[in-house]
Amino acid sequence: MQFIGHFLAFLSVFLWSSLYVCVKILLESFAPLELLFLQFIIGYCFLFILCPRFLKSTLKDESYLILAGLSGFTIYNLFLNLAMDYSKASNVSVIIATAPLFTALLAAFLKIEKLSFIFFVAFILCMSGIVLLSYEDEGFSFNPLGDSFALLSALGWAAYSLLILKIMHKRGNLILITRRIIFYGILGMLPSFLFLDFAPNLILLLDPKIAFNLIFLALFASGLCFLLWNHATLLIGAIKTNVYVYLTPLITIIVSFFVLGEKLSILALFGAFLTLLGVILAESKFSKPISLII
How far is Cα 43 from Cα 221, in angstroms, rounded to an integer? Predict the structure, then answer.
């Protein structure tokens, strides 16, 4: 079961990162909020087709589902897109990559999971590698607003990772749970229509290229990937699942190299090595949990 959990975590991150190509194509036709809303609506409908029933839950369980929807979908995705509007992609990718650290610290604080000394060593290796992967010729520049949005996005994902762990321990129907969370995530986006652009040109969906990429993105990023991720969290825990988040910049760069023809520098290759080393170390048998007093 441990192997299955690690495989599902890697597969979900691999698919999310690979779908960067779809996002890049679709953002030429839709604003970030428009794209998010459309893909989540399609993802919700896809999960409804898979399991056309409704989830029965208590008021307490429903509150966790609401919080998971707001943190994992609304806060994470909206603030990520806002961060990209104000700050450089290199800054955002590095800040988002701190999500596993926040997840681990929050899990330790709430006494949900324990940390290991090796985790912090692995974190330093991974972050060093990601900085090299994300480094651009003009270097990094600090944007208080944009980088703050990225930090809020990372915190949102950390909260979601722990909430889904608690929710999945109830052993309910995975599809129904994920669909309900997506539903609350969509509701959480509605207030943002007041201050963000939302006027999607649906006629563009008649273009086969746009329609295919949107459906592909929605089915995987907003449907299948969350099913895989949620199940992986149940099997191996929030901390070990989130370690795979470190691979996101690496996978994105590799896919971009093969699909989009983007360059891969020596510096990026060294960064890839450090990131992989950190992930392997974090998931190794030497990474035994220790108590952490916060």
Answer: 8
